[in-house]
Amino acid sequence: MKKSLDLKETRSDLVSKLEDLHSVATTSKRELTKNEGKKVDTLIADIDALDVSIKRSEKMEKELRVGAAVSGGSISTPKADKRYSIQNAIQGMVNGNLSGLEKEYDQEAKRNNKITGLGVPTFAFGETRNNPQVTSNASGIIPTEVGAWAETLQNKTVLGDLATWMYGLSGDMKLPTLSGTTAGWTAESTAAAVTTATNADTAIGSTTLQPKQLDAYMDISKMLLAQTNSSVENIIRQDMNNAIASTLEAAVLGANAGAAATPQGVFNAGTGTAAAAASYAGILALQEALETSNADFGRVAYLTTPGGRTLLKNVIGQPTAGTAAAGFTNGQPIWSEDLIDGYEARSTGNVDVAAGGAPDQGLVLGRWDDCVIGQFGTALDVVVDPYTLALNGQVRIVIMSYWDTVFRRAESFQYTYI
Fold this sequence. Notes:
alpha+beta, phage-related protein like fold, 2 domains, seven-stranded mixed sheet, 10 helices, 14 strands, 32% helix, 21% strand
C-alpha cells in the first residue's frame, strides 16, 4: 500500500493536468471538446478515488504512528509547493472562484491558523519561483511581454545570515538565559579550618517571544494580474517579501522599547555608550566592551546606517608605522573593504537614526546570533481588496504576519551614535 505522501503527489499531478485542460479552454474562450471532456471526467474520477485512498492511508499511518509529519492531513509536498501560485490565488479571490491547489492551501491555512482573508503558506514568500501555469497552445501566451518591472525601493536587509531565525511558532516561547558561572580557589580543609567550594550562584532568566502583528500592502493593476508572464508571479512574491523583511528589520535595528505593538530594538535592548564623534578610539572602546563581556564570538559584525558608513570611510584609523601622531594622513580609513578593524561591517537604512542634531548615525557591534527573530503561524493572512481602488483598475493586497524579536544578552550588543 502506498504512503499518503506518495498518493498526494500523484493527486497533485492529476490536478495539474486538470488545470492545464481548463487553462487551454479558458484562454481560447471555448467549451471543452468531446475528447477533452472525457479526459476531465477521468481525471476527476481518479482524484476522487485518490481522496478516499489518501484518507484511508492517513488513518492507518496515524494508528501505526508512522509518517507523523503528514498524518495531520497537510497537502504540502515538494511538487505541490512548487506549483502553488499566489497570482492565481489573488485572481481567484478577486473573481470569487478560488479553486484548485490554491483553494486547498487556503483551506488548510484556515484550519491551522486564525485567518480572515486568503490563507497563503509562508513558503510562498520565502523564495522566488517561476509561474507554474503553462499552456499547450502558443496562442495561450499573451503576445505582448510585460516590460522591465521596477520593484519598490526598500532598505536593503542585512540580518538574514546574522540573526537566529525561528519559524512556525504557535504560541509564546521562552528562551532561557544563564547569567554566568563563578569559580574560585579553595584551600585544603584541616581540622582547624574547614573550607567550602565557591558557590556558582548561576541565575537562570528567560526572555519571551510573543506575536506582534506586522502589516504590509501593495496595489496591483487588474491588467497586470491577468498577465501570464512569469515575472509577474515573481515580482508579487519578491516585492511583498521585501516590504515585510525591511519593516521587520527596521524594528529589530531600531530603538523601540518593545512594550507595545512593535518588537524591541537593539538600540533599546543593547548596552549603549555616550554619543561621540567617529574615531578609531571609539571603535576600540566598543570592541573592548564586547570582549570584556565575553561576547566577542559567534556571528559578530558592525551595523550602521549609510550615513555612518560614509563617516567611517572618511575617518582615518590606525596610522601606518612611522607616521607622525598628528593628522594620521597615511593611515587607512576605519571602514575599509567592508571591514572595521577586522570585523565584518554592513550598512542599511534600517539602522536607527537618533532624533535631533548630529551625531545621529547608529553604530552597533553585536554578536548577532544572540538576536532571535521568531515568526508565528504556518500561513500568512492576505486580504484581497478589489473595491478600494476599483476606479483605478487596481487591487489592494494587504498581508498580515506575526513576528517578535528577543535579544538574549544586553552585553552582546554594544552601540553608540556617531
